[in-house]
Amino acid sequence: MDKITIKNLEVFAHHGVFPEENALGQKFIITAHLYTDTRAAGKTDELSSSIDYGELSRQIEHFLTTHTFKLLECAAESLAETLLLQTPRLKKVCLKLKKPWAPVGLPLETVSVEIERGWHTAYIALGSNMGDKENFLKQAVNALHTTPSCEVIQVSSFLSTKPYGVTDQDDFLNGCLKLRTLLPPRELLEVLHRIEQEAKRERIIHWGPRTLDLDIIFYDNLILEDDDLCIPHVDMHRREFVLKPLHEIAPYKHHPCTHKTVREMLEELS
């Protein structure tokens, strides 16, 4: 990925734990590495095909002078999110906020915080076998699309499938969606659980009936194995009701462990 760098932008702002820092203000120095694709700009020589670093510098200055934070960590986090949400071609940003002459009572040059944040692609499986199934799935799609730092890119059609695990229950309506998000996996999982709770999801019987079921199938090419969260989803390759709608929107997505495509996994299962 290509990179545009804004180095040592000086901003006078009012951030700090101590009240006098908020009242008097001080100088902050910001370096931003902007990750984007510069190919189109390189071929057309048009600013509209790139990121306007002058405008983005003014955006950084405006943000830091119109907000007040106690911690550099919070200032950096909030600024990174704002830049990613408001800059169309920005895929990832690395921010370094330096605070010269930090009031620690000892001689030092600067204290700094450096973070890297960017957009991620997740695939989410949806299912319902209680009440108005289609409405529950549509409400979940809309809830994700209106969640800050999330954007639904593509949604599969919904298909009716037989229950998995506990078979003595109503058929399911299933689907998958492609999500663009700034949220890390655990924060995304918390959002999914909140949406399930809003749909009155009850976790009484494992694999039992539910108004709404939302699972993270893929998150970029991440491999994560924790007690309460496994990515890719541990059973996805065995579940036709996941693979069929996923195949509709991402047939050539590779499983990061087996390196098989969704199409290959579906063909093997069939």
Automatic annotation (TrEMBL):
One of its GO terms (molecular function) is 2-amino-4-hydroxy-6-hydroxymethyldihydropteridine diphosphokinase activity. It catalyses: 7,8-dihydroneopterin = 6-hydroxymethyl-7,8-dihydropterin + glycolaldehyde; 6-hydroxymethyl-7,8-dihydropterin + ATP = (7,8-dihydropterin-6-yl)methyl diphosphate + AMP + H(+). Residues 206-217 form the 7,8-dihydro-6-hydroxymethylpterin-pyrophosphokinase domain. Keywords: ATP-binding, Folate biosynthesis, Kinase, Lyase, Nucleotide-binding, Transferase. It holds the Pfam family FolB. Its EC number is 4.1.2.25, 2.7.6.3. Pathway: Cofactor biosynthesis; tetrahydrofolate biosynthesis; 2-amino-4-hydroxy-6-hydroxymethyl-7,8-dihydropteridine diphosphate from 7,8-dihydroneopterin triphosphate: step 4/4; Cofactor biosynthesis; tetrahydrofolate biosynthesis; 2-amino-4-hydroxy-6-hydroxymethyl-7,8-dihydropteridine diphosphate from 7,8-dihydroneopterin triphosphate: step 3/4. GO terms for biological process: folic acid biosynthetic process; tetrahydrofolate biosynthetic process. Coiled coil: none annotated. Belongs to the DHNA family. In the N-terminal section; belongs to the DHNA family. Catalyzes the conversion of 7,8-dihydroneopterin to 6-hydroxymethyl-7,8-dihydropterin. PANTHER family: 2-AMINO-4-HYDROXY-6-HYDROXYMETHYLDIHYDROPTERIDINE PYROPHOSPHOKINASE. This is Bifunctional folate synthesis protein. It comes from Sporofaciens musculi. The gene is folK.
